[in-house]
């Protein structure tokens, strides 16, 4: 394996020992011991030796794995919530269809006993409830996205 050598004058034969990860550093990313003490001395903590670079990368991997796991859990929870809302809406559609059939079949007394259901729909109470749930879910999703970003 070829040894990675420094290219700066006066220490071009020095072995490169790591990389500078400082976003604002304008010097060469790779560094030797002399570069570290001369060129990168104001941000030593951003200079990572080869020996610890792998550990750092593994930490990044773990953070992303954990974030990915949390995203999957959140998606699963949201999916369950939406499925519950959808199931509730499907049941209400069936209820309304049954009520409409009673009305069409002239079953007025039976229909009258369920008139409160129609009143809830007529007043938009049911519709507003669903809208509020959806708005709350969107808010939760947006908050989660902001936490991840």
Strands of the widest sheet, in order across it, are 2-1-3
Q: Strand-and-helix sequence, N→C?
A: EEHEHHHH
Cα separation of the termini: 40 Å
Radius of gyration: 32 Å
- The count of helical stretches stands at 5
Mean pLDDT score: 88
Give the low-confidence spans: none
Strand content: 5-15%
Find the count of extended strands (DSSP E, 2+ residues): 3
Structural class from helices and strands?
Answer: mainly alpha
Largest sheet: 3 strands, antiparallel
What's the shape? rod-shaped
Q: Helix proportion of residues, in percent?
A: 55-70%
Write up what this structure looks like.
The chain is mainly alpha-helical. It has a domain at about 65-149. It is about 65% helix and about 5% strand. The protein has five helices and three strands; from the N terminus they run ββαβαααα. Strands 2-1-3 form a three-stranded antiparallel beta sheet. The longest helix has about 55 residues, at about 50-105. It is rod-shaped.
Quick structural gist:
This protein is mostly helical and 149 residues long. Helices cover 66% and strands 5% of the residues.
């Amino acid at each position: 394996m070829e040894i990675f050598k420094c290219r700066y004058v006066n220490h071009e034969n020095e072995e490169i020992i790591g990389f500078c990860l400082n976003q604002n550093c304008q010097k060469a990313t790779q560094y030797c011991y002399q570069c570290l003490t001369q060129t990168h001395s104001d941000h030593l903590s951003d200079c990572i030796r080869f020996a610890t670079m792998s550990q750092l990368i593994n930490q990044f991997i773990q953070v992303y794995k954990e974030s990915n796991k949390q995203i999957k859990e959140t998606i699963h929870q949201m999916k369950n919530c939406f499925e519950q809302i959808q199931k509730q809406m499907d049941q209400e559609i069936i209820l309304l269809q049954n009520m409409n059939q009673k009305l069409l079949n002239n079953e007025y007394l039976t229909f009258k006993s369920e008139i409160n259901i129609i009143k809830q729909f007529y007043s938009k109470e049911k519709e507003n409830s669903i809208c509020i749930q959806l708005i709350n879910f969107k808010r939760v999703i947006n908050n989660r996205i902001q936490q991840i970003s």
